[in-house]
């Protein structure tokens, strides 16, 4: 099946710099060699709770949407962003996993958290914008919808049935090719890339 790589501007080509810059009144920039990185420091955190510890029942009810349709048990993975894997637990329900992730996040308000259950994102909290982006594609599988934005609000592409890594790589390519613009991209509704040339210009 041919991949849907339809750009809302009609100028998006995979592996090639965006051609929409001319149409937006600016000259198309040439790619930069260096990848843009950001150093995110984490505050000291308290002791993390085990998977056996769960939040109160009223919180469990509020988590229903994130685990909608989830059945049986699976593998729960929890991360303190940008890279610390604090727990891997098997044979646990989605609701129990998300409860535990929320419990740890609430106990460590200065840290960013990202948790999955059977490769499904069940909780995310970025204390610093984009703090967990580096974890998402490594933690999920399958395909989904990719949306890319030139901040503050220009949606330059919507693409279906694409892997998270392909989406993230394409967003990075476009950001590198347009060094005067800010970029923000999502996959299945989860943020996977953020580069703000002007602080706070992209949505949170």
UniProtKB/TrEMBL annotation:
Listed name of the protein: Lipoprotein
Gene source species: Cystobacter fuscus
Organism classification: Bacteria, Pseudomonadati, Myxococcota, Myxococcia, Myxococcales
């Amino acid at each position: 099946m041919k991949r849907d790589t339809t750009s809302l501007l009609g100028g998006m080509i995979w592996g090639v710099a965006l051609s929409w810059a001319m149409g937006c009144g600016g000259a198309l920039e040439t790619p930069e060699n260096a990848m843009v990185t950001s150093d995110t420091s984490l505050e000291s955190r308290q002791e993390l709770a085990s998977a056996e510890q769960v939040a109160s029942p009223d919180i469990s009810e509020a988590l229903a949407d994130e685990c909608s349709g989830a059945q049986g048990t699976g593998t729960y993975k929890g991360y303190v962003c940008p890279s610390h894997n604090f727990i891997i637990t098997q044979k646990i329900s989605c609701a129990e996993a998300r409860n535990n992730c929320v419990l740890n996040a609430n106990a460590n308000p200065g840290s960013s958290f990202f948790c999955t259950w059977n490769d499904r994102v069940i909780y995310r909290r970025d204390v610093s914008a984009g703090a967990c982006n580096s974890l998402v594609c490594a933690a999920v599988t399958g395909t989904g919808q990719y949306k890319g934005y030139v901040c503050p609000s220009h949606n330059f592409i919507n693409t279906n049935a694409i892997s998270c890594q392909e989406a993230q790589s394409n967003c990075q390519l476009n950001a590198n090719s347009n060094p005067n613009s800010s970029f923000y991209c999502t996959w299945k509704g989860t943020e996977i890339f953020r580069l703000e040339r002007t602080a706070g210009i992209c949505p949170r």
